[in-house]
Every structure is written in C-alpha cells, then in structure tokens.
Design brief:
Blueprint lengths: L1 E2 L2 E2 L3 E5 L5 E14 L2 E13 L2 E9 L2 H8 L17 H4 L3 H4 L3 H6 L4
Antiparallel strand pairs: 1-2, 3-4, 4-5, 5-6
C-alpha cells in the first residue's frame, strides 16, 4: 500500500549532512494538523544505524527527512548484511530473485 509516496513495509534511506546514512522501515504515514502548519508523521518499526539493526518504534516529522527518504528507496540488497538471517524481508521471494532460473528451466523443457 502506498501512502504519500511511501510504500508501507519498504525501507528508505536518510542521508545526514555529514554523508552518513541510516535506514528505516516504514509502517505508517499520517497527516497531522498543528498550529505551526501541516506535516506528516512517518512511523517506522525498524532502523539500521551505524551498521546495526534495531527493532524500535519511532517517527519522523520533518519535511527535509521525508523528501530525502522519498528520493532514496532501498533495495533489500543494500541492507542485507545488517539484517538478522531470519528477518522476514530476507524471506520474500520476488520475480527478480528467480529470473536467472528462466533460461535453465527453458533449456531443460521444464517451462
């Protein structure tokens, strides 16, 4: 499901001014109304910072962070080394993960 440009359940990267980066896994995005203006709260359930995977509950409420994250969606291959071996995101099978098998299957008349 997509909300305000974010795909819920996907990972995004935020790059700090000093070029260090950290990653968050988006759980929800909510619009808020405050006296100082409208902004979104971007909730996350996991974070990778300083090469360490953390389960945590937090949110961003900063348009700069939101913009940078939307410009930097993360392919799972970028963070695989930081995730625990039994992490659910590593168990997802996508079309891309088995495309390399198609020529082999065709050669052997399996498909």
């Amino acid at each position: 499901m997509k909300k305000y440009g974010f795909i819920i359940g996907n990972w995004y990267k935020y790059i700090e001014n000093d070029k260090s980066a950290y990653y968050i896994k988006i759980e929800n995005v909510l619009e808020t109304n405050k006296l100082n203006g409208n902004f979104r709260k971007i909730y996350y359930s996991e974070k990778i910072q300083n090469n360490k995977h953390l389960i945590c509950a937090g949110y961003w409420a900063n348009t700069k962070m939101e913009t940078i994250a939307l410009e930097n969606p993360v392919d799972i291959s970028e963070i695989v080394e930081f995730l625990p071996k039994d992490h659910p995101d590593l168990l997802k099978i996508t079309k891309q993960s088995y495309e390399y098998l198609i020529p082999f299957l065709k050669e052997n008349n399996i498909v």
